[in-house]
């Protein structure tokens, strides 16, 4: 059976976990915590990041690569559209979510949760304020417009774009932040819809178990 290395509270590991749950692929889950990477982990993940998917000698140390691979291994249910432009747009939206969106939305989580509780460092509250004031509104305006009146970013089909767009907002909530439903109603409703999916519910249950094991 393949193994997914990582910890569900990482939005990138959560992406891979949700993909595995959506596809109904069986896997072992091995907890690997980013700042406590075992030395031998670099053999399968040269960047020392989570997640990493491993099946025997085969290893994929990146959430986007994992999701693309899973689609080939188990095409149904499809997490990418078949039509060329819709496919390209989903790949782009996944990239945007993994970079600009994640790097914005994850700042409150990193500063206010990871730093004090895991790194034992003071949060940089000025950084949180700056990102939330200068970057966050523009990012939200962009994703709100990309989603439009659709159920999911590609329309009726739930895709990797939706997984990537929704996962950072779980960490946003862990940092006591929430999307203003009056200003960005489509994204607020989208996040709620995504969280209600059984795949997200399973990933959130893993977070809960992890936090409980960490002592709260
Ligand atoms: N592009 C990678 C990013 C993975 C990533 O940045 N993971 C973080 C945890 S959320 C990590 O492992 N950070 C540890 C480090 O950068 O040393 C992916 O999509 O899997």
What does this 3D model show about the protein?
The protein has 216 residues and is α+β, with helices and mostly antiparallel strands. The protein has two domains: 3-73, Glutaredoxin; 84-197, Glutathione S-transferase Yfyf (Class Pi), Chain A, domain 2. The chain has eight helices and four strands, in the order E-H-E-E-E-H-H-H-H-H-H-H. It has helices spanning 11-23, 63-73, 84-105, 107-119, 125-147, 160-174, 185-196, 198-213, and strands at 3-5, 28-30, 52-55, 58-60. The protein has a four-stranded mixed beta sheet. Strand 3 (52-55) and strand 4 (58-60) form a beta hairpin. Helix 4 crosses helix 6. It starts with a strand and ends with a helix. The chain binds glutathione. Glutathione is lined by residues 10-12, 34, 48-51, 62-64, 98. Glutathione (GSH) binds next to helix 1 and helix 2.
SSE arrangement, N to C:
EHEEEHHHHHHH
CATH topology name of the largest domain: Glutathione S-transferase Yfyf (Class Pi), Chain A, domain 2
CATH class of the largest domain: Mainly Alpha
- Helix content percent band: 55-70%
CATH architecture classification of the largest domain: Up-down Bundle
| Tally of domains | 2
Beta-strand residue percentage: 5-15%
What best-fitting shape do the alpha-carbon axes yield? globular
Distance between the termini: 31 Å
- What small molecules are bound in this structure? glutathione
Q: Radius of gyration in whole Å, from Cα?
A: 17 Å
Overall average residue pLDDT: 97
Q: If helices are DSSP runs of H or I spanning 4 or more residues, what is the number of helices?
A: 8
The side-by-side strand order for the widest beta sheet comes to 2-1-3-4
Low-confidence stretches: none
Biggest sheet architecture: 4 strands, mixed
Number of strand elements: 4
Structural class call reads alpha+beta
